[in-house]
Amino acid sequence: MESPGARQKWRVFLSASLILAFFFLTASLVPLVGPVLVILIPLPVMFNLARLGRPWGLASLAAAAAVTGLVLGFSTAGGEAAFLLLMAFLGIIIHEVLRRSLSVERTVVVATATGLAFVGGAVTAQALLAGTTPWAVISASIAKTLQENIDLYTRMDISSEQVAVIKENSGKIVAFLQHTFPAWVTISVAFVVWINLLAARGVFAANGLPYPDFGDLTRWKAPERLVWFFIATGAALLLPWEGLKWAALNGLMVCLLIYFFQGMAIVTFFFKTRKVPPWLRYIFYLILILQQYLVAIVIAAGLFDLWVDFRRLDRVMKEPETS
Questions:
Q1: Does the structure show a pLDDT above 90 at 131?
Q2: CA quadruple 246, 248, 250, 256: dihedral positive or negative?
Q3: What global pTM score does this model have?
Q4: Does residue 265 surpass a pLDDT of 50?
């Protein structure tokens, strides 16, 4: 006869599998919510691994994948299934890195680097199966995605002139995305890691699960020497060698992501110290997603914090302790 503890374990396993399957299916089938929810797929994977342990957590992932495949159809899922698999794999990576209790910087770097290795391996495997090169696979994927977006814009309420401009410049757009693909994929993976680390801290704490003490992340700062890399990559864009320009642009884009993280730490710091209500914070985050100029302002705040010190962190560090 099955013990009450075993039955409880199975109930937790079943609920964990269904919740993860819900994330998969919503990300795949719901147009407006899906693109946002897909970024958070690593979170339930991490949570299941932490709550159930590695064997049962991986089993819940396999069960959720099976349910998703049955609903979507194993033969028609295609690239969408590969993307969901990547998101789930990032959850496994982040969980394993968290177990090492590294600093927040090393956690993000190690998880991002491992995720990039997985992407590189997947692209290489796809190229070998197709009898082509990884670069050709990337180029074909970018061109296909751009064409799908053009078709979507055509069906939406967007002026024909704007769609025509995109079509006329599609070759240049594809070439730009091809040359900056290393930066885009690095930014995407690092952003997903960052979002899920922040989300997991509250979820884990609410459920009594262990989570590394990263300290007050609203006081986080990028290394000061990073500004020299920013200046060097910016200056390299002015040089006449095209290959060097593209390499510098990729480096500059990743550098700007780091300053975006610092800018968000500044914004969150002021939200915290000014006791801004949560609903106002969420409105700001929503506007941040919709308005690119606000992203530029956040990046600028992170960059100029080196000289302005918006949070007065240097002054606090220099103040003598009082007994």
A1: no
A2: negative
A3: 0.87
A4: yes
CA distance 91 to 95: 6
pLDDT in tens, 64-122: 988 888 887 754 455 567 788 889 999 999 999 999 988 999 999 999 999 999 888 88
Q: Could you list the residue range(s) of the whole structural domain that residue 275 is in? A: 216-323
Quote the DSSP letter at residue 218: G
Can you give the chain as a three-state secondary structure string? Answer: CCCHHHHHHHHHHHHHHHHHHHHHHHHHHCCCCHHHHHHHCHHHHHHHHHHHCHHHHHHHHHHHHHHHHHHHCCCCCCHHHHHHHHHHHHHHHHHHHHCCCCCHHHHHHHHHHHHHHHHHHHHHHHHHHHCCCHHHHHHHHHHHHHHHHHHHHHHCCCCHHHHHHHHHCHHHHHHHHHHCHHHHHHHHHHHHHHHHHHHHHHHHHHCCCCCCCCCCHHHCCCCCCHHHHHHHHHHHCCCCCHHHHHHHHHHHHHHHHHHHHHHHHHHHHHHHHCCCCHHHHHHHHHHHHHCHHHHHHHHHHHHHHHHHCCCCHHHHHHCCCCC
First-to-last alpha carbon distance for the chain, in angstroms, is: 64
Domain assignment present for residue 291? The answer is yes
Domain count, the chain: 1
How far is residue 224's CA from residue 93's CA, in Å, rounded to a whole number?
28
Query: How many angstroms separate the CA atoms of 94 and 179, rounded?
Result: 28
Read off the amino acid at residue 10.
W
Residue 86, in any domain of the structure: no
- Amino acid symbol at 242: E
Q: Does a structural domain hold residue 76? A: no
Radius of gyration of the chain (CA): 22
